[in-house]
Amino acid sequence: MNYDLKNLPERTTKPRQYGFTMAMDKGLSIREAEDFVSMCADHVDIVKLGWATSFVTPRLKDKLKVFKEAGLPTYFGGTLFEAFVIRDQFDDYRRLLDKFDMSFAEVSDGSIDLDHDKKCDYIAKLSEQVTVLSEVGSKDADKIIPPYMWIDLMQKELDAGAWKVIGEAREGGNVGLFRSTGEVRSGLVQEILTKIPFEKIIWEAPQKAQQVWFIKLLGANVNLGNIAPEEVIPLETIRLGLRGDTFLHFLGIEKKNTNTAPPFEID
Amino acid sequence: MNYDLKNLPERTTKPRQYGFTMAMDKGLSIREAEDFVSMCADHVDIVKLGWATSFVTPRLKDKLKVFKEAGLPTYFGGTLFEAFVIRDQFDDYRRLLDKFDMSFAEVSDGSIDLDHDKKCDYIAKLSEQVTVLSEVGSKDADKIIPPYMWIDLMQKELDAGAWKVIGEAREGGNVGLFRSTGEVRSGLVQEILTKIPFEKIIWEAPQKAQQVWFIKLLGANVNLGNIAPEEVIPLETIRLGLRGDTFLHFLGIEKKNTNTAPPFEID
Amino acid sequence: MNYDLKNLPERTTKPRQYGFTMAMDKGLSIREAEDFVSMCADHVDIVKLGWATSFVTPRLKDKLKVFKEAGLPTYFGGTLFEAFVIRDQFDDYRRLLDKFDMSFAEVSDGSIDLDHDKKCDYIAKLSEQVTVLSEVGSKDADKIIPPYMWIDLMQKELDAGAWKVIGEAREGGNVGLFRSTGEVRSGLVQEILTKIPFEKIIWEAPQKAQQVWFIKLLGANVNLGNIAPEEVIPLETIRLGLRGDTFLHFLGIEKKNTNTAPPFEID
């Protein structure tokens, strides 16, 4: 940090198990990826190449190399997994992960109907090959999943081998965890956290108001995802109480809410 | 493409007569233009320097060179044409096109009142010098043009020598083809297509929901314009059914709707 | 400029006392900062490193150097000043300005409650060290300040030594001068201008509609702030009547409203 400020919330440092930021690249050029890591490598923990953008990305290997050399793991968005599965090309998908030397993969069912036992099978199989993130929640705004069901799905996917589970929100932040207006389904989040460990969940929160909401509820070290590259620095200031939105929050109640221990234990 | 996926909609390849993407540059630096072409040259067919941004752009010739060397034609936005015409400087405008070695130009009347015969005269004159794109529709949200009139204007401009006609939407996507909310005037679009050939129209569709709407109605190879540089890769995935929004659409009815032939013939 | 167009509104040139553009950097990389100055150095007068982003910015000195070499002064956002003051670290803040060789600073009370005499003391003290911009208006959407109060606060801060005063709007443009919808509180602006000199105020106006509103009311050479880097070129065209939004405005009434003299004199 460039100067000393007293009484800041304590942030976890890399490698982080929580306090984790997942950024979404939806088409950065090689040089833009270099620019991104030059600013954000310390503040980001993993980079998702959004949905199936990797399919139409030139010089994909060179781009992956930029992130790798900066110590940032990457993975292909879950929609790519689904695009292979719906075409009965799961084995091709596994070969693809090898070809690009990926160490992470996402398993999701945001666009397709996938029997949940079958989804857990995919998680289990891929877990032998890579570290798996699995995503719960539909991209379809009309598909409302009740809280007990979110909990059940998340727990089963963790049991099947997922390293962390992701709460779906899309790039726009208007489905899954959020109402179509972008408002957080707060009862849902709180109920999930009575059962699933805090550090095991990455909340997709692309909009600033959503990031602020999660940070106020769960502290500086909540795991957040789908962060646009240019929003990583702003997010880091929100986590630290150094932007208007959380400035007073962390000063007022910082000793109560922003300890580095996760606020919820595994039950 | 970086890997094989079965049953993708067939995309036209360059040089494209349809399936065309027009990107809008509203102030990229030289290096950002280089970054853009490094990622998007295969996915973009033409670049518009938005409205009169060229007036205040440093090193304009160097920027044009970047696009030219990547095989991307460029043109100045129609507002620049209008700025010259309203000042009685049309001859200066023609010299300007020569000075910057432009091979395309846009003729529009989005901000000024221009007698339509006079507009067609400009199209005819400029057609002797460059390839002309002409634009139909007002930038004024209160000016509603009925469908038969859109058709009449488009046909006359094509007859006068326009290579393609553009349906106006502005950078914001909230006028012309769209209601102020950004919603597509769908009856208008469908009525236009009963008379004007599919491949002759470029639809300005800067917002994702608009792109999705056109692609679902008209297939992967609809001509779309006013695409922000960072949205070119995402748009390409939408065209291919590789983003949530069109994922199921292309799987379900792909053999019926996404043939490479344009869905509407010249009448 | 790249070509001649008649009857454009006259723009002030650098160093500008009015017609001033303040851009906001919220996390540009070194190379992005270089790109920015390569396009915008002539069109921007000062760069703000938004709120406390400087705290988490790697290679901060290198970034400041890029702006300095382009002749662009920079300053740290007012939230950083507040972060030091609320922690009783004002002396550390003064040392920080020296350490980074800053010649400008912002004094604000957007996030904290600060007695106004005390705020004026800070302005007076910092004025001995640097050029001070002071900001009036709360970041809190519920805190409505009546016009006579804005005038009183602005006048006292100018008297205390502020070089210019800033009307608060945040990055989002939805508080202070603006209603939560982004609509301008127009009566407020007009009343302020009956007492405070035009050239002494920088209006934060991050949204295009807000920029257009101020330019239509106060002419091409109004001082505007919180402009995103990629909106500097577009803003310059709006000032010149070369974008649809102000195209007719400047043609129709240009001789009456866009003289280079500020429209309001110091009373």
TrEMBL record, chains A, B, C:
Top EC class of this enzyme: lyase
EC numbers, comma separated: 4.4.1.19
Origin: domain of life: Bacteria
Lyase listed as a keyword: yes
Keywords of the record: Lyase
GO terms assigned for molecular function: phosphosulfolactate synthase activity
Keyword Lyase: yes
Gene3D superfamilies the record matches: Aldolase class I
Pfam families associated with the record: ComA (PF02679)
Similarity section: Belongs to the phosphosulfolactate synthase family.
Name of this protein: Phosphosulfolactate synthase
Protein's organism: Dawidia soli
